[in-house]
Amino acid sequence: xxxxxxxxxxxxxxxxxxxxxxxxxxxxxxxxxxxxxxxxxxxxxxxxxxxxxxxxxxxxxxxxxxxxxxxxxxxxxxxxxxxxxxxxxxxxxxxxxxxxxxxxxxxxxxxxxxxxxxxxxxxxxxxxxxxxxxxxxxxxxxxxxxxxxxxxxxxxxxxxxxxxxxxxxxxxxxxxxxxxxxxxxxxxxxxxxxxxxxxxxxxxxxxxxxxxxxxxxxxxxxxxxxxxxxxxxxxxxxxxxxxxxxxxxxxxxxxxxxxxxxxxxxxxxxxxxxxxxxxxxxxxxxxxxxxxxxxxxxxxxxxxxxxxxxxxxxxxxxxxxxxxxxxxxxxxxxxxxxxxxxxxxxxxxxxxxxxxxxxxxxxxxxxxx
Length: 369
Prior knowledge:
- By secondary structure, the chain is α+β, with helices and mostly antiparallel strands.
- It contains eleven helices and 15 strands.
- The chain has a single domain, classed as DD-peptidase/beta-lactamase superfamily (Beta-lactamase, 3-Layer(aba) Sandwich).
- Residues 50-348 form the Beta-lactamase-related domain.
């Protein structure tokens, strides 16, 4: 199954495109930064984003930026601006789960029923057959809860109970037998958040702090508390297009709608650190990192366990995740050794827009050039 773009409602989209070898060859022979700048400019000028930025770190460190951070502040998006990282959250949650596996507290192929009895049942679902691995890799057959949530836009600012979100997705019926097909579903990661809390006795937010952000100095990264709607200063504003010429400010809203599936907040500087740490094996033992990188298909852009594995046009393999939340498009990808990293912060545009293509091309060009 091709995964050129995986869209799970407003909270998740895997930006993935097949870029021609000629395009990358041009970047390699010329100036990759200039090539990426063309893509970023297009997001702002053609697709009417307020602002967009691509940051590259490693042996070549540079930024390609266009537009501005908000309608009120005439400056480009900076690498210390906070923004909603959307489904990049899934890589953090998967890392915590795989650390628990390494500690013997969970097993990838044990049924979710063993830990959350009665939650995954009915409507074609069987929690005794759906495993932790199925949830991590989106092969559980469980559908996405988000489709009905945005019928009422006020849900963006309401407070939501994670178990209720899970039941919302489960009520939509099964997409197929566990392990049979890939279906990107935020519901999987809501259930994994509940699993972490049941297994540790701590909140998902606390486990991410204890295991990842505090020990590794990611001081600007967090899964906010339910009541924390505002982004920390400084921040990129998020604008969502309702019509081609009408956009609304969706910067500050409840983190409970995405929760463990897509509500973390960070900066491009911290995201680059996280992507490098993960790739370098500093967050997971080798066995668990190998599991994380094992994909469901062999397509150029494939899904592992909370991780997108991208075979770029120049032959390089990159590891990371992308995401979309109302007003924000994000990405963080690193080469296998963690020495080259690219992050995307786009402060405007609604989900599943064609602007995903130039941003996907920008990732390819930045890591290949």
